[in-house]
Structures are given as C-alpha cells and as structure tokens.
TrEMBL record:
Residues 141-223, 366-446 form the RCK C-terminal domain. This is Trk system potassium uptake protein TrkA. Gene3D superfamilies: NAD(P)-binding Rossmann-like Domain, Regulator of K+ conductance, C-terminal domain. One of its GO terms (molecular function) is potassium ion transmembrane transporter activity. InterPro entries: K_uptake_TrkA (IPR006036), NAD(P)-bd_dom_sf (IPR036291), RCK_C (IPR006037), RCK_C_sf (IPR036721), RCK_N (IPR003148), Trk_Ktr_HKT_K-transport (IPR050721). SUPFAM superfamilies: NAD(P)-binding Rossmann-fold domains (SSF51735), TrkA C-terminal domain-like (SSF116726). Keywords: Ion transport, NAD, Potassium, Potassium transport, Transport. Residues 1-121, 229-346 form the RCK N-terminal domain. It comes from Prevotella histicola F0411. One of its GO terms (cellular component) is plasma membrane.
Amino acid sequence: MKIIISGAYAIGTYLAKLLSRDKQDIVLMDENPENLAKISNDYDLLTMESSPTSIKGLKTAGIEDADLFIAVTPNESANLSACAMAHQLGAKKTVARVDNPEYVDPSNQELFKKMGVSSIIYPEMLAAKDIINGLKMSWVRQRWDVHDGALVMLGIKLRETCEVLNRPLKEISGPDDPYHVVAIKRNDETIIPGGNDTLQLYDLAFFMTTKQYIPYVRKVVGKEHYVDVQNVMIMGGGKTATRAVKMMPEYMNAKIIEQNPARCEVLNDIFDEDTLVINGDGRDIGLLQEEGIRNTQAFVSLTSNAETNILACLTAKRMGVRKTVAAVENLDYVSTAESLDIGTIINKKAVAASHIYQMMLDANVENVKFLMSVNADVAEFVPSPDSKITKKTVRELNLPKGVTIGGLVRNGEGMLVSGNTQIEAGDSVVAFCYNVDMKKVEKLFM
C-alpha cells in the first residue's frame, strides 16, 4: 500500500516507523525539517518537507496513487483541509486527527465523509475510553468489548490467589468452559497458547468470555477481594484527563491534581463542583495523604512525562492504592513500567495506530485494537459470503501461525469458539494476531 502521513510529530512518526516495518510504501511529510531529521535511516520510508495543504506538495508525494492519507499534525483545521484536498486529488481513504469532541460524534460522520474525510481520530478521547474501561473493573489490566459487551476480552495479571495456575489449559479452558485463554505475556515473551500450556504466577493472561461469565472469570483468577473503584485521583489536568472525567460513570468521584495554576482555573471552569481541582504536585506524599490517598481506589497519572507518571504510580501503590494507570508515551519506558508492575499503561500513539491500522484492511473490519503489552492486534472481522473461513470448521482452517480465534457474535449473542465451530457469513469474529501479517488473516474473511 502507498501511505502518505502528514505530521512528523509523536503519532505521525510512530505510525511511519510501525508501517514501514510492514513493508508499506510510506511518505512522511512535515513543514519542519528538524522534525523529519529525527527519523532514523534504519526505517524504509521517504521524508518530504511540505505543508499538508500544499497542492504541489501532495502531488509530489504521489497523492493520486495513495491508498491512505493520514493527517496528524497538531493543527486540526489543517488536518481536515488536507484530507479534503487529498481526497479530491485521488487518495482512496483519508484520516484526520482532531481535538474537538463534537467531531467524533457518530451523527457527524456522514458530514465529514462528504468533505472527503473517511475517518476522524481524537487520540485523547480514545485513550480516555481505555482508562475508564480499566477503572470500571479494578481487577483487570485491559478490557475490550465486542458488540457492547456481547463478547469481552480481559487482560488480567495473575497473582497467588489464582485458582488455575500450573494446570494445562486443556483441563481448565476446554470447549465447554465459559472462557478461553487467547494469549499470555510472560516476562518479555508473548505466547499464543495450546492445550498443554499452563498459566503461571505473574503472567498477564488474556481471557475471552461472554458478559454473563465475567464474575466466574473473576473468581477463578482470584480477584474477588478487589474493591470496586469509587474514588479516583488524577495527576495531570490535560486533555486526556478532561475527557476521562467527563466519561466517568456517576458512581465515581474524581480529584485532579495539576501543577499549573492557570490550567487549574481552566479546569474549574470546565467541571462542576463535584470534581475537585487541586493545585499541587501529585508526587508530594504529604499532599496525597492530605487529599485522602488512603481512601482512593485508583490513581491515574497523565502528565506529559513518562518517568513522572511511573514514579507517581509507584508512590500511590506503596500508599495502598490497588489500581494505578500511567500514561507512558515514550515506548522505551513501556517495558520498564510493566516490569515495575505499574498497572494499566496508556499510550496515545498505540491507541491511534490501532484505529488507523483498521483503515488499511480491505475486509469488513469492525474494530482493531493494538495490545501494546503483548505487541499484538485483536481484530473484529465480519466474513463475506463464500469467504474461506466459512468453508470449514475452525479445526480444519489451518490458521496462520500466531493467529487464534477467540469468539464470535451471531445475531447479537456472544459465543466462544472451539475447533468444531463453523463460522458463518455475517458473524463478528474476534481474531487475536501476534507477529503475523494482518493481510494474510484478512484474506480468510474476504
């Protein structure tokens, strides 16, 4: 595929590096030559100094042959204009990054499509959704819902209280059991498990189940003693924090700790009296104690500094907070944060990449989520009539190595998949894909 990315900032640079490794034809555009100079020669991509709204620049980049144009500069208006122009000049699909929550409302998507913008991304809102999903279930590291929770994937850190450690999966997760283990992260290794594999202490295990069996999964992994989150303390009052607080269910209470006095005034104008805004440093132990950290079930650190967020979460954990969430935008620190058992890690670049990756696929793909902790994708495919995957049972499909099918939704009902399952056209099928070309998986559904 030919992909043109405008904006060599955090998301654009990350995407360019990620997609170039997939052997895509990538052009990265930016007005600032210093931004482009930061791209290593180790990556197979072209860089080009140009404004995103320069017709000459777009044509020089080869926009008439582009399969996908991605505008992720900090300027929302420029991104939307560039996508509209790219569409008129021949780009098949376009994606624009925005900062206005009104623009991502489903009711407005048709308007943007008429403008030539195929898809809108608001990374801060996507990250906020992940944060709230994690807070709703204090015992879960990651949660991913298919069709409003008809099928659910749960990433869970296994502790000593887990009932199913050190037993072959064929004994604890057979065709008649209400969950499947679709992946395991063990130290630095990602495992797509077979029947003889076991769950071990401190594994991060990914369970696929249906909504009604979530309490059962909670029991077998030994997490029933985890209290539900009601009081949340957030360090850093940026856009992601603002969106997260606005998305919180009514039973949660939030306190925001922000160092910048001017930003505190802005936050006070945004929120009502139910959200307390505190001017201070969230690493200040005295301040945390004064503000009731001992009675807080979740601590979320969302400053722009990864080291600060990791340190703050470690401090909160030592003060008794079970659920911590850290924004870690520097990918070099992700493995460090995981090894320190920080909890849920949020990375806006990875969140945005998941959304954009979906645009690259030709099959009917409802949703794609990149799981940074296991360096894998979970995708929700809808098979076409006469597609390969509908011709045989799952056992007979000879799926590519690194691919497992965790479940499907048929007529609104979630179902786990076994070797004897016959997938039908129109099903929503959840495929877990590790270290595999998604195009190969996609062909099964077309």
